[in-house]
Design a protein that fits this description.
Elements: H1 3-17, H2 22-34, E1 38-41, H3 48-58, E2 63-67, H4 74-78, E3 79-84, E4 89-94, E5 101-105, H5 112-124, E6 126-129, E7 132-135, E8 141-146, H6 159-162, E9 167-170, H7 176-195, H8 207-218, H9 224-238, E10 251-253, H10 257-273, H11 281-292, E11 297-298, H12 300-304, H13 309-319
Parallel strand pairs: 1-8, 1-9, 2-5, 5-8
Antiparallel strand pairs: 3-4, 6-7, 10-11
Helix pairs in contact: 1-2, 1-3, 1-8, 2-10, 8-10, 9-10, 10-11, 11-13
Length: 323
């Protein structure tokens, strides 16, 4: 099978395992194909952990979940040098960050030092302990989660650190029909656990297939007009008065160059998943909110009026003409 056929099969299997969160599944695969990381925000129990665990089962990759807590230390994540008294030497013991897929659960529960250690590893793709640096796996994806309900005892991520995430995905509750299917799936899995029978499985996708898919994503045709459209969207976040007098007072800070890169790369991955060999303006529009939600800073007055980043981005997409 071609890389596209294997990834499409993986997506279908994931959607059968993660019911009612089709958008989250699609965004995980987009981040995987675009070689980026994603921040997922949603209430507890919305299958965030299950989703990344299922993705690790569907590909040939190691997985580790880290529960971020106020007493977590950077070394608990990156690893540390261990002293061996029998020969008087130090040996590096790697931490969970050296797995392929990392779930940073409730990242805003840990103090700034731990957050910085994770985000540095995400950006540099290496960990430095003492005088030595250790490379992380070539296939490396971090999915961090935030609980929007409880803010007591949390350490909000600064805007500069949020910028390291390619996508910021907000997930909501499944509808009634999906909830019924979730109940049926939970009963089936409980029976399988009691009887020892195996559930639906999938042949894991090899890492080489993922790297081949990434090459195809980068080779997709993106016209100059679509590229200009991406740049105009970014420019509208920086100088909104050129596009709309209504939007201008809402924004204090616009998107960084990483925002343009994120839109382009995720739009390519979206087009590739759809089976096209070119990127459309609709691909750009479909990923813009998740690529920019955490990269723009609203004015206090706009927040007081109930303006959210989602509303602001939708307004920008409404005034920037598409090719």
């Amino acid at each position: 099978m071609t890389p596209h056929q294997q990834i499409s099969q993986l997506m279908s299997w994931l959607q059968s395992e993660i019911i009612g969160q089709e958008r989250l599944v699609q965004r995980m695969l987009v981040a995987l194909l675009a070689d980026g990381h994603l921040l997922v925000e949603g209430a507890p129990g919305l299958a965030k952990t299950r989703a990344i665990k299922a993705l690790s089962d569907g590909i040939q990759a190691s997985f580790h979940r880290v529960q971020f807590t106020p007493d977590l230390l950077p070394a608990d994540l990156t690893g540390t040098d261990i002293y061996h008294p029998e020969d008087g030497t130090f040996q590096f013991a790697s931490g969970p960050i050296f797995h392929n897929l990392i779930l940073a659960d409730e990242i805003n529960r840990a103090p700034a030092k731990v957050q910085s250690a994770l985000l540095e590893a995400m950006e540099e793709r290496q960990v430095t302990v003492g005088a030595y640096s250790y490379e992380l796996p070539r296939l490396f994806l971090v999915m961090a989660t935030q609980n929007p309900i409880e803010q007591e005892g949390t350490y909000p991520l600064p805007e500069a650190q949020l910028d390291r995430f390619m996508l910021h995905v907000s997930v909501g509750y499944p509808d009634k029909a999906a909830s019924q299917r979730i109940l049926q799936l939970a009963r089936r899995e409980a029976l399988e656990a009691l009887t020892g029978s195996a559930g639906d499985a999938i042949e894991p996708v090899a890492q080489e297939v993922i790297f081949a898919a990434r090459r195809e994503v980068l080779e997709l045709f993106l016209s100059e007009s679509v590229e200009e459209y991406i740049l105009e969207i970014i420019e509208a976040t920086r100088d909104p008065s050129r596009y709309s007098e209504q939007i201008a007072p809402w924004l204090r800070w616009g998107a960084s160059p990483r925002g343009a890169i994120a839109i382009e790369q995720t739009a390519r991955a979206t087009a590739w998943l759809a089976g096209r060999d070119f990127v459309t303006p609709e691909d750009v529009r479909s990923v813009s909110a998740d690529a920019l939600r955490h990269r723009i800073l609203l004015d206090y007055a706009a927040e007081a009026e109930g303006i959210t980043p989602q509303i602001c981005i939708e307004a920008i997409l409404g005034v920037v003409p598409a090719p």
